[in-house]
Structure prediction request, 408 residues.
Amino acid sequence: MKIKTIEDFNFRDKTVLVRVDFNSPVDPQSKKILEDTRIRAHGETTIKDLLSKGAKVVVLAHQGRPGEPDFIPLDQHAQILSKILGKLAKYVDDLYGEKAVKAIKALRGGEVLVLKNVRTYADEQKKRTADEHAQTDFIRSLAATADFFVNDAFASAHRAHASIVGFTVGLPSVAGRIMERELNALGKALESPEKPCTYILGGAKADDALRISRYVLDNNIADKILTGGIAAQLFLAAKGFELGKLNTQLLEKKELTPFISGIKELIQQHPSSVETPSDLALDVNGKRGEIKVGQLPTDYAVCDIGAETIKHYRDIIRDSKSIVVSGPMGIYESQEFMNGTRLVLSAVAESEAFSLVGGGHTVAAVKQFGLQKQMGYISTAGGALIEFLMGEKLPGVAALESASEAHK
Ligand code: 3PG
Prediction:
């Protein structure tokens, strides 16, 4: 990797700004954090490591977006972090003002402080270059208190936000453990995947499925694309199947129909690589009913892939050497429609291939079926993973690369 890591510097008694991604699901009524996977991931690796090296750790993170119900302060995150670390993670309700600077200066080696939600700073989310962000009061005030910047927020690396790119201009900057781990695992899946390589793309973001398929097929990264979820319906529509009024309306509501022509073109160019379901499961008055795609259109909602497709997909998975999964095959939360997702994911878990799983719903499904331990790598990222798989350069990663180059 071209990026420097925690191994490259001595952090004893140094003040280290650490950008993590603590963004977690929040109950809209009680405002309580529902799930601590991301806090645990950063806490148990990067933050613990830096503390054991004697660093004064200053945590920067976001939670939610201004105006959204999950836009809450980070005091709860600090409490959860304290439990994970087994020592107090202090919290200051200030980001770069006098209170924050005073609290940073009072830190001793081996102590950790969480600052206020970075998205309370109005210009945090402005799309600017690293140099432009570096000129702001926010970045200048905090950079003046610190010796190093560690970016551990891979899940936010697709955002050119102030706290992601701004500090890399003036401070020696390195990747944290999670950033390093994600880049290594994703590099394995994208740069040099063992062949045959299969991408399993489902869920509702059918436009993302098209863009990922386009990139990985055109660049000879993937050999097979297995489609499921709403993505599969759009791919079937591109093959000329009439889905029925209810299903077509859903695609229109999600503004997905403009992508049909792109999918048609993709299938024409890679006819043997793109797999679509040969049968589907329908919601027939709350019960599972299966039809072959030749029996379309239907008046019922498509909710899963059918038994024949499941078997076919499992056979392909069994013969694969590397597998990427993004998006469920159907409504996995429901007993009636979980089969496709459960059986496809269990085939991935049982296979000897290197597997990479990512995205909120996919990871939730893996957990629901108790398959976490059998997966090769579970990414903490959602949007950042998708952009990475589309071959996009992530601004947070690019900023670390430039910083590693500048501070050689
Ligand atoms: C995520 O959950 O994908 C990251 O924390 C980024 O959040 P954002 O989409 O609000 O920028």
User: Anything to note?
Assistant: The pocket of 3-phosphoglyceric acid is lined by residues 21, 23, 65, 155-156, 159, 382-383 (CB under 6 Å). The first strand starts at residue 15 and ends at 19.
